[in-house]
Amino acid sequence: MTESCIQIEQLTKKFNKKTILNEITLDIPCAKITGLLGPSGAGKTTLIKQIAGMDTSDQGHIYVLSKKMPSLDIIHRIGYMAQSDALYNELSAYDNLDFFAQLYGLKGKIKKQRIYEVIELVDLTADLRKKVSKYSGGMKRRLSLAIALVHQPEILLLDEPTVGIDPVLRQSIWSELEILSNQGTTIIVTTHVMDEAEKCHQLAMLRNGRIIAFDTPNKLLENTETKSIEEAFLYYGGVKA
Ligand SMILES: Nc1ncnc2c1ncn2[C@@H]1O[C@H](COP(=O)(O)OP(=O)(O)OP(=O)(O)O)[C@@H](O)[C@H]1O
User: Fold this and answer.
1) Which of 39, 66, 91, 212, by CA, is between 20 and 30 Å from 206?
2) Residue 61 has pLDDT above 70, yes or no
3) How much distance in Å is there from the Cα of 43 to the middle of ligand 1?
């Protein structure tokens, strides 16, 4: 049995009396890439924010690294990349990274070294001193990813990290996620891109705020006798392919 680093128990979240997350129970394995797959409006962002401890639930609990969320002790052990970039546009990429690295307690040589490592990883070294206001949308996504990684978090929560990123860099980001998970990082990534879903070690399929399936991509295909994750999703969603 794989150890789990995040436990979600009977989690329900409502907005204006509308149920957005409906009694979600999930055990997210440690040191694996878990994908949250679902159509627009399924509740992926709402769920990832709950895991990050950014919002309260109406019912149920979340434990991250054995601590009940929200927990201030855990927040610095999480790297969170939101769907919309939270960057300081009037600062350079370096200064943005420097600011967030300091918030996470990095100092001196180690801080500088990590800034250069993560900026290289997202292929922005040449634009490090450029103001973020002059960045394209894809460059901003890459910088947001670098910020989420700068303090080497044990838990990495990525909300649609590769939107607007070209296929070559997307590949290298996925290779890096694979390396990080091999090194022990627990990663959750939301996506509605099916070929990215196949790269995840575990996939949680979310529809109308409910988990309709949770397994490895291979098992999901096997169990539904389908040839693609998209077909498997339709099967679990009640639309027989
Ligand atoms: N703060 C809020 N107030 C009211 N409704 C909200 C709020 N946040 C999200 N919702 C609603 O909750 C539902 C789920 O939204 P959420 O952003 O979690 O979906 P998603 O699966 O991440 O979609 P997408 O792939 O488009 O990002 C939507 O109907 C959305 O309008």
Assistant:
1) 66
2) yes
3) 6
